[in-house]
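subagent[fold] <- orchestrator: predict structure for attached chain, return C-alpha cells only, no commentary.
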Amino acid sequence: MKRSNRLIALTSHFLDHPRQHIQLPHFSDRFNASKSSISEDLDIIDEMFHHEGIGHLERISGASGGVKYIPAYSDEKTTVFINKLCNMLEDPVRILPGGYLYMSDILGDPHMVKQIGRIFASTFANLEIDVVVTVATKGIPLAYAVAACLNVPVVIVRRDPKVTEGSSVSINYVSGSSKKIQTMVLPKRSLPDGSNVCIIDDFMKAGGTITGMRSLLAEFQANVKAIGVLAEADDEEDERVIDDYVSLIKITDVNMKQNQIHVHPGNIKANG
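subagent[fold] -> orchestrator:
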C-alpha cells in the first residue's frame, strides 16, 4: 500500500475510534508495513491534527505501548464557533411566545451538534469519564455528540418510567425556575454503581433539573465529574442553585417588546 493510501486509512481509523488504545503491531499487520513506517505515518497525522485544531495522537511507549487519538477543538476554533452561535441566536425571529428562544434547528443540525460535542469533549478531556448522562429529550443529541468524542456510552434520564426498561429508581425534585415538584427516573440496569459521570443538557435556567439529576445519580453512588450546558439564562429573578458547570453561551435578555435578544459567550473560557 502506498503511504498516501495508508495515511488516509489511518486517519479514518482514528476519527472513527477516538480515545481507543491501539498497539502498533495491529497497524503493521493490517497494512503490511514496518513499525518504523507506521511510526512515521503517525508523526505526519499528529502534525496535521494539531494544524487543523482537531486533537492529537497520544503515544504510549513500552511493551504494551501504542497510540490513541484524543479529539479536541482548538481555542481559535472554539471562539469562532461560539461567536457564530451567539450571532445565530440573536436573530429576533427566534423569539417565541412567553419569552422562549427557538433552538431546535441547532439541536437538529448534525454538523452544529458535532462541533458542540467536540468542544465539551475537549474541555473534559482530562477527566476520567465512564458515561454521559442527559435528561430527555432535547439534550439527547448533544449527549451523543459528546459521548462519541469521549468514546463512552449515553444514559438517558426520563420523566416517566418505561415498562421496556425494567425496574427503575425515581426521585422527586423541585424545579429551580417554576418551583414545582417534578419526577425523574433511571432504570437500575442503565448505570453501574460508582460510575464517573458527565452531565450534558441543552438549557439551564436556575439549575433545578441538574440538581435533580445529581440527586438521582447519588442513588447509584455515581461521581459527577463534569456538567456541560449549551445555553444558560442569566436571569436575576432566578437564583442559580449550581455553580460548577461549563456553558457555551449565556442568554442575558429576551425582550419581546423591543424584539431583541442579547447572547454572549458562556463561562467555558474560565473553566476550560
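orchestrator: received. Logging for downstream: Residues 3-71 form a domain with the Arc Repressor Mutant, subunit A fold (CATH 1.10.10.10). The first helix runs from residue 3 to 16.
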